[in-house]
Amino acid sequence: MKATRLRTEYLREPMGLDTEPRFYWNCTGGSTQTAYRILATRGDAVIWDSGKVASSRMTHVEYAGLPLKSRDRVDWTVTLWDEKGAQGEMASSWFEMGLLTATDWVGDWITGNYRPKKHSRYPVDYFRREFSVSKRLTRARLYISACGLYEASINGNRVGDFRLAPGSTDYRHRIQYQVYDVLELLSTQNSLDISLADGWYRGCVGPMGVNNVFGRQTKVLCQLELTTDDGRVETIKSDDSFSWSSDGPIRFADLKDGEVYDARLTPTLLGKAKTTKVSVTPTSSNNVPVRQHEVFTPSLVTTPSGMRVLDFGQNIAGFVAFTVQANEGQSIKLRLGETLDATGEFSQANFLLKRPVKDIGPVASFLLISQQGDKMKTPMRDTPLQEVHYTCRAGRNSYKTEFAVFGFRYALIETDVEFDVADFSAIAVYSDLEEVGQFACSNPDVNQLFANTQWSMKGNYLDVPTDCPTRERLGWTGDAQAFFDTAAYLMDVPAFTRKWLHDVQDGRLKSGKPAAVAPFNGLSLMYNSTGAAAGWGDAVVLIPYRFWKRYGDERILRDFYDLMRGFAMFMISQTGHRKRNTAKDNPLNKYVYEKGVHLGEWLEPEEFRDPNPTGLNGGTVHTEVATAYLHYSMTKIAEVAAVLGRHDDWELFNEYAIGAKRAYNAMFIHDGTIDTDRQAKLVRPLELGLLDGTAKAKVQDRLITAVESYGYRVGTGFLSTPFLLQALTNAGRPDVAYAVLQNDQAPSWIAEVRAGATTMWEDWEGKASHNHYAQGAVSQWLFDTVAGIRVDGENQFVIAPCPGGGLTEASASYGSIYGTVRSSWTLGPTGGSLSVEVPANTVAEVRLPDGTRHRAKAGSHRYELGPILTGHSAVRRLPPALAAASGRKEAS
C-alpha cells in the first residue's frame, strides 16, 4: 500500500506556509491502512519521526516535531502498512514555511513618487532594481506583496504564474504575500522589474464602482533573498534605491473598467521610488494561487447593425488576448459583455449601473444605494466599463490583459486593424482549484446544466467566492453558504474556503454581526445593514459546520468558533417581535426573530417576490424566514459547542433552537399545515428541521401540490433552491423532483440551457447577471441523490442512488478528502445495475433502491437492480408532456 495525493494543509507542496502544518494523503493498493509512519527532515536533519503509528487515519495528521522557523524547507515522507501488515513503498512531498514574524520583513514599502489627487486615476507604476550575482547560488526566494496588484519579472521573465496577486483581502486587517523560487531566472547581471496597478486596493469595486476604498496610494513590498553555496544570504530589498516611472504602456488599469494600453511606450524609469508605511504586516494566504486556465478562440458575428462581435462560445471570467500586425497609431477597442440583446446586438445592459464620474463620498453613496442617483447634480457614467483600448506600435503587437478581469462571452471590436478571428483569444482566470467532481447522465440538457454550474463556479472563485464577475463581484455570504456543498463536490475547496472565512472574520462588527460581503469593499451602509440577514449572516455558522462535516476538520471549528458564537449571541440579542403589542401577546416572543434588515427568499420567480424585499421603509417583514434560520443555525452551533466542550454555550443555543422551532410552529402552522403555493415557504420548514409528525407529512403533501400546480417549474430563490429537490425526494416523490429538474419551461434550469446559457443565471428571468452560481446549487442533488454519493464520517461513505426520471444511466465520481468514490447506474425495461468503486482504506454502505443494504470495502462492486426501478415505472407519475419527453430520450 502506498500513499498518494500527498498534501500539507490541503495544499500540494506549498511555499510560504505560516500555520502549523498537518498532513494528508489517500491510499492506493491494498484494502485497509493499518499503520503509517511520517518522517520529516530539514536539510540532513530529522526533525520529526512519528514512528509506526497504528491507525487508519490519513487526514489532519498534525506535525509534532521540532519547532519550525521562518523559511524552513521541510521534506516529508509517509510509509503505510496494509491489512496484512505488509510495509509499502515510501511516498514523499515537501513544504516551505514563509516569513513568520514581522521582523523577518526587511524591505520597505515603496510607492510611486507622486501625490494622488481626488477624482483622478493614474497609470501603472513601474519599478526596477538592477543587481549582480558573483557567487554560485543554491537558493533564491522572492517574497512580495502589494497594496494594489503587482507583476514581477527577472531579466524579462515573469516571476511565477499567480495572476492578480496578491489577491483580495480587507487591506485594513490582512495583506497577502507570495513566495517564488526564482533561482532559475537569475544570471550574473540581473534586473528585477515590478509593475503595480490599482486592483482591489484603490480601483473600482462593487456595484457602484466605488474606488479608493483602502487608500489613494498603491504600494509594493519585496525582498529577494539569495543564498550562496557558502551559506551566506544577500537580500535585495525594496527601498528608495529602486528606479520608478509611470510612463509605461499601461496608461490605465482597473479590475472592472479595463485597461488602456499604448504599445508605443516603454517606461523610462528615470525617477526614484519613495518609501512609505503600512501598518499591516503581510501574511500568507495558505491558499491556492489564481492562475490562467482554459483558452477559447472566437467565431465572428456580424450584428444586424453591421457591428463586429467576437463570440468565444463560453461565458467566463478572465482575460482577453490578441496578436496582430499593425501600423503605428492604429487602435483596437474591445467592449466585453455576456449577452446579445433581442435584436442580436451586443449588450452590457444586464449588468450596467450608473456612478458619478468623480469619486463617491458618503452622500453620493447613500443616494446610489437608495436608488436616488437621479437626484445627484453631477455627471454620471456607466459602471463597469469592461473595455480595452489598445494603441498599436508598428509591426507585431501582442497583448494580454494583466490587471483587469472581465465577465464575458462576447467582445464588440472596433478597429482599423485588419485581423483574423484566430488572432484573438479569451483566457479563463480563477483560483487553481483541483476539479474533484464529475457527473453525466443520459439527458444532455442535465449534463449542460452541470457544466453551466461548473463554469459559474470557475467564473466566481477568484480568491473570493463572488456573486458575479461583472456588476458586483462581491463575496456575498448568503450566496456562498447556499452553494458550499455543491462547490465541495465540484472542486477541492478547503484551503480556499478557510482563506475566505478569514475575510469574513476580518469584516465582522463589534456587535458580532458579520458584514453581508467579505472582504470589505466600501459602501458599509449597505453591506453592514444587511449582514445579519437570515441565510446570509448564518453563513458564519453553516459554512464552518458543513466544512467540518465534509472534511472532518475540527480545527476549522476551533479557529472560527468565536466568529460563530459572536453571531449566535447577536441573534439572541435581537430576538423578539418589533412591535411591543405583538411581542406582549406572544408567549414565545423570546424565540421569534424578525428584527434587522432581512433579504427573504432572494430572487424567487417574479410572481412570488415580496414587494420591497429588504423590509426597509415599511416593506416585507421576514419573520418566517428569520425564525426558521434562528432554529437552523442554533441547532448547528449547539452541536459544535458540544463537540468543543462548551457546555454552557450548548445549553443556551439548544434552548433557542428548541424555542425557535416552537415559536415557528405556533406562528406559521395552521390546521396542521402551511397552505400556500409558494414553494420556498414549504421547502424551508421541511429542510431546516422545523416540522415533525403529521405536520411534516401534510406540508410535504402540500409541497407536491404546489409544484404540480406550478407545472413542475422552479418556484424558489437563493435560500431554498438548494433544498427543493431533496425536499421532494424526502417526501417520497423523487419522480416529481426529476420532473422539476428536467422541465424546460421557465422558470427552470433547463429553460436556461435551452436559451443557450453556458453559465447559471442570477435570476430566473435572465434579466440580471448571466454568471451567478447560486441557483446551480441543484448540482448537489446530482451527486448526493441521483448518484447517491455522500461522505459519512472518517473514511466512510454512504452510496444510495435514486434512479428514475426517465434517465437510462447516470454516473458520478467525487474526489473526496478520503479518496475518489464512484457510482454509476444503468436502467432498462427489465432492470438495471449499479456499479460502485470504493477507494482504498475506506468503506461504504451501499443502499439499493429496494431497501437492501450492503457493506462495501475498497474495490469495485456491482449490484443488480430490479425491474421495479426501470425508467418506465419511474416516469409513471410525471406530467404527460414530461413523460413523453423522457420517453423520447430513453428511446434515443
Query: Beta fraction of the residues?
Result: 25-35%
The biggest beta sheet reads: 10 strands, mixed
Rounded average pLDDT: 95
Question: Percent range for helical residues?
Answer: 10-25%
Based on secondary structure, the structural category is alpha+beta
Number of helices: 19
List unreliable stretches of 5+ residues: 868-881, 883-892
Structure description:
Helix 4 crosses helix 17 (779-786), helix 8 crosses helix 10 (623-643) and helix 10 (623-643) runs antiparallel to helix 11 (647-668). Strand 13 (149-154) and strand 14 form a beta hairpin. It contains 19 helices and 45 strands. Strands 20, 21, 25, 26, 27, 28, 33, 34, 35 and 36 form a 10-stranded mixed beta sheet that branches. It has 892 residues and is of the alpha+beta class.
What's a concise summary of this model?
The protein is an alpha+beta fold and 892 residues long. 25% of the residues lie in helices and 29% in strands.
Topology:
Layout: E1 2-8, E2 15-17, E3 22-28, E4 35-42, E5 45-49, E6 53-54, E7 61-62, E8 73-81, E9 91-97, E10 109-111, E11 125-132, E12 137-147, E13 149-154, E14 157-158, E15 176-181, E16 189-197, H1 199-202, E17 219-228, E18 233-237, E19 243-245, E20 250-254, E21 258-262, E22 271-272, E23 274-276, E24 283-284, E25 290-296, E26 299-302, E27 308-326, E28 331-337, E29 339-340, E30 346-347, E31 353-356, H2 362-369, E32 380-383, E33 387-391, E34 395-400, E35 406-415, E36 424-431, E37 437-441, H3 444-460, H4 477-490, H5 494-507, H6 524-529, H7 539-551, H8 554-573, H9 580-585, H10 623-643, H11 647-668, H12 679-687, H13 693-709, H14 721-730, H15 734-742, H16 749-754, H17 779-786, E38 789-791, E39 796-799, E40 809-816, E41 819-828, E42 831-838, E43 843-847, E44 853-856, E45 859-865, H18 871-874, H19 880-891
Parallel strand pairs: 2-9, 15-24, 21-33, 39-43
Antiparallel strand pairs: 1-3, 3-7, 4-5, 4-6, 4-8, 8-9, 10-23, 11-16, 11-19, 12-15, 12-17, 13-14, 13-16, 17-18, 19-22, 20-21, 25-36, 26-27, 27-34, 27-35, 27-36, 28-33, 28-35, 29-30, 31-32, 37-40, 38-39, 40-41, 41-42, 42-45, 43-44
Helix pairs in contact: 4-7, 4-17, 7-8, 8-10, 10-11, 12-13, 12-14, 14-15, 14-17
